[in-house]
Design goal:
Chain lengths: 162, 146
């Protein structure tokens, strides 16, 4: 099974994408599946670290947390842009975090979450020392970003991937 | 423009609302690129366009064509997924490249960044206070205002 279908998740998403882009029919289902399985073999040659999802049921929860946070920070950043960066109420700056997360796929998801959230930008990650440098647009000096990122995303991602 | 006449008013209002919110966010993202001060602040601006800006535009497109063709038209979601994957990676690489540049005294630029040693010494999760422009003698904070 795994020899012929080395990347089941990738192949499944490719079939779904193929059917979304075309109208559903048996012919397209077959054609899409052939292409998806072929793509799985090609990707196998690149030897990416395979994602091992341990707890599927936590994914919707992470999704809603992220969707809510992005909505909230959209509003916050829109305010900063409207009021102007010279407004004394806003501080921007760099923040270093210590990460416990090690799985490369989980780190990729965390990078996308952090960067997609307006107001936080992923600047640098050091794998040897496990720290991450963020740039935050609107930061209160007493905020603890270590706990914030850990509680909201990192702990969930660790449960899902590790 | 005939097919637009087939839309009932409540549907047209709903679609227009989503579209206006989406395009306003995209506009604000572009305004941010002009208004924000430092390079790293400007990294935050485009996220407005591609997060909920894209989502709202996609939603209005899905609503309109699903209603007009009386079948679910959801292939726009593929655009959303690809934007959501590719845009952060671009910003991430831009941020990394800028940090490498600004930490180097020879390549010194306008931006103030924490030096490599400051980074390791600073407490985790807290705002890094010791931020300098490398290559410039006088230290100046990244943040405007007190």
């Amino acid at each position: 099974m795994s020899r012929y279908l080395p990347h089941p998740l990738l192949s499944l998403s490719l079939v779904v994408m193929w059917l979304l882009l075309t109208r559903f029919s048996l012919g397209h289902l077959l054609l899409g599946s052939v292409i998806a399985i072929g793509a799985g073999w090609v990707v196998e040659r690149v030897q990416p670290p395979k994602p091992r999802l341990r707890r599927w049921h936590l994914i919707p929860r992470l999704f809603f947390i992220v969707a809510y946070d992005i909505l909230r920070s959209n509003i916050a950043v829109a305010k900063v842009v409207l009021l102007g960066p010279d407004n004394p109420r806003y501080h921007s700056g760099f923040i270093r975090l210590d990460l416990k997360l090690r799985d490369p796929n989980a780190l990729a998801v965390l990078a996308i979450i952090v960067t997609s959230t307006p107001g936080t930008a992923w600047i640098e990650y050091n794998r040897e020392e496990d720290w991450l440098l963020l740039h935050v647009l609107d930061v209160f000096s007493e905020d603890d970003w270590q706990a914030l990122i850990h509680d909201r995303y990192e702990a969930l991602l660790m449960e899902i991937f590790e | 423009m005939n097919h637009l006449n087939d839309l009932p008013p409540w549907m047209a209002i709903l679609i227009a609302t989503f579209l206006i919110i989406g395009s306003t966010l995209a506009l604000l993202g572009s305004v941010g690129l002009v208004r924000l001060r430092s390079y790293y602040q400007r990294l935050h601006a485009p996220t407005l366009s591609y997060s909920y800006g894209t989502l709202m535009t996609i939603l209005s497109s899905i609503l309109m064509f699903s209603y007009l063709e009386t079948r679910p038209v959801v292939h726009e979601l593929v655009i959303g997924v690809f934007v959501m994957i590719t845009a952060p990676i671009t910003l991430l690489m831009l941020g990394r490249a800028a940090l490498r540049r600004d930490q180097d005294a020879k390549l010194a630029h306008e931006e103030a960044v924490p030096a490599r040693e400051t980074l390791r010494a600073s407490p985790a999760g807290k705002l890094i206070r010791d931020v300098k422009r490398s290559g410039h003698p006088e230290p100046s904070p990244d943040q405007p205002g007190p």
